[in-house]
Amino acid sequence: MRPPGRSGWRAPLENIGDLELLIASHNAIVAIESPEEERVRALVAEAAARQDLPFFEWKVTSGLLRVGAGDPLFETDKPAQALKAAAGMRTEAVYLFYDLHKYFEDPAILRALRDIGQTFSADRRTLVLCAPAIDIPDDLRPCTARIRLELPDVKALRELTVRTLRGLGAPQRIKIDLSLPEIGQLVESLRGLTLMEAQRVLMAASLDDLRLDRNDFKHILERKKSLIASDGVLELEARDTTLQQVGGLDNLKAWLKKRAPGFAPEARKHGLEAPRGLLLIGVQGCGKSLGARAVASEWGLPLLRLEAGALYDKFVGESERRLRAALATAEAMAPCVLFIDEIEKGFSGRTGTESDGGLSRRIFGTFVSWLQDRRRPVCVTATANDIQALPPELLRKGRFDEIFFVDLPADPARRSILAVHLVKRDLDPGAFSLPDLAAASEGFSGAEIEAAIVSALYSAFSDRQPLSTGHLLSEIRRAVPLSRTCKEAIEELREWAKGRTVPAAGDPARPASSAA
Length: 516
Description:
Helices cover 42% and strands 14% of the residues. By secondary structure, the protein is of the alpha/beta class. Residues 1-11 and 508-516 have low confidence and may be disordered.
């Protein structure tokens, strides 16, 4: 790890050696972003001990205290007094301050920190700031290393699980009925949670019936879904959409099958990276979202849905924090699929630059930088309807592996879509004239075909008759598809896609505009 430059330095804190190096190389101020205060404290305390340095910590509720050496220093509950006391000590030491960023607007606090930035850089005195998110003022950036604490990896979660299960054993009289492979599955299911969250999930699953076995895996998954969704940005979804439920899109399906082995360790030996992602653009209602969701089922990976519109918050810095936290969770759960529906609504990067103080551009910049530089196998599957709102930075190679164009389904695809939705409703496709229905529904999207089937079911129910081809033909002929009401817009979309995208259906050598 290299020391910070003039603009400040941001990198993940992955192990105790990284923090040790920052202290040993005379970094005056280190800002660690993490919601896990106890984990940060343990890391800082261990780094100080390994450097044989005294360890102090400060909270506004208690003051500045040398850990293991009695009471807090007199009247240091005020941040200004605590900083003055730390600056006055000539002995090399490590000082951990919690939530000090809330006082950055005070000129006296900012001046004291600038002074510390100058004096502490002469030796191994280091002031560590800890908070979930820290916006470093320009005055402090030259002397501050700004890093983030990664969510716990599998090794840390395994250690926590073993320690927690031992604690739940004899003293609590809880029966642990899990084999070693099942404990491995249990640890894997905790990825994406903080250590405290993981411990609470394990405790809750064990204490409800004084037993921990395979039956608790469902409970753990539900608790994990709830915790991930607590910020309103990220949601862990069930993998209940398969490629068999997606009618047509044969070219997309073939691409997914070919790329599936890319997550295997053997692929690394051949110099292959895991699939980075795909962007689905096309006509509304033609299966973009369904196809994007099916990626996780096809590859057997966790499916996370990012609600881009929920990122934006009225408080300064909160939107960026939410995005960073969501992306950190996705990386902690890697390999996984990150699904973003209608990506242009949250990451256009063009609108609102004046009205929102440039927030949209900052959010977009953070996201595309992560798309390019992500270090772990998170496959992003995104959909878009409004191509005009997509900036070129999002479309260039390196962000996504491929951009597919999803057009209105051709005749064979319409037959497949009809069969899928009939089977979904426990009806035998063989009892209907699929060729006639496919011909009558030319120009219909998959969503419009499903809507026609639903309407026909209501008509049949009203007539007290089983659903027939006649009912379906009647509803199809009555409906006006989007391809007629928005004909010009669809033709414009096809013209744009020609030569820029790969058709999701049919031969990839064919132009996208002929996919219908």
